[in-house]
Design brief:
Shape: elongated
Helix content: over 70%
Largest sheet: none
Number of helices: 7
Strand content: under 5%
Structural class: mainly alpha
Mean pLDDT: 84
Length: about 210
């Protein structure tokens, strides 16, 4: 079980890195192509002897840039997958900001009770969104509508929308794990990020030693 958990955790991190890299690469190539062809046109104007070749290269780059009408749509789709897949990763790594200044003033046993209530609310929210969005994806699947600028590549709207129920289902699993840890007295709250504590740590780290 622990080995499976480690494999999943590594896959989670690797998949997020892949999404970020793919978004960056597509955007980079599109921007380069949209700015590179003018360089060859300028060179063709300056060097008349090689103008034909340079103009041909410029035209080829311009054609490639114009053919990448799908790049913006693909980047938005990848970003959507990054957001909803990253929700569960944020829960796992305590990346979401926690507003618990008043909760921390309460005794430990009260904090555990509040943590359980908060966890149950998060489970209800994640479960509700997962089920509702799955029904939405089912509707998209039945309609079989192609994604904007990506449909002619066989990518349908439900392919992109599938990450919504999947992402919330993963969030549900992560909060279920937190609930189990709270009930086993292994933690008191949701384990979210504490900006104030992080700021204090950074301040202490940056203070020069006497």
């Amino acid at each position: 079980m622990n080995a499976l958990r480690r494999v999943w955790d590594h896959f989670e991190e690797g998949f997020i890195a892949f999404l970020l890299a793919a978004m960056t690469l597509v955007t980079f190539v599109y921007v380069i192509l949209n700015n590179l062809y003018t360089l060859f046109y300028d060179l063709a104007d300056r060097f008349e002897g090689a103008s034909e070749t340079l103009f041909a290269i410029g035209d080829a780059i311009l054609g490639a840039a114009q053919a990448m009408t799908w790049s913006n749509a693909l980047t938005k789709a990848l970003f959507a997958w990054l957001i909803f897949f990253g929700l569960a990763y944020g829960v796992r790594t305590a990346g979401h900001i926690g507003v618990d200044a008043l909760v921390k003033l309460a005794p430990r046993h009260v904090q555990r009770v509040i943590g359980v209530i908060a966890c149950l609310c998060c489970l209800g929210y994640a479960g509700l969104l997962s089920v509702a969005s799955f029904e939405w994806v089912q509707t998209l699947f039945t309609a079989a509508i192609g994604a904007e600028d990506l449909g002619h590549y066989g990518i349908m709207q439900w392919h992109i929308g599938l990450i919504v129920p999947l992402g919330f289902a993963l969030v549900f699993v992560r909060f279920l794990e937190i609930l189990v840890r709270i009930l086993r007295n292994r933690q008191t709250g949701l384990g979210l990020a504490d900006e104030a504590a992080e700021a204090i740590k950074l301040t202490e780290h940056e203070e020069p030693k006497p």
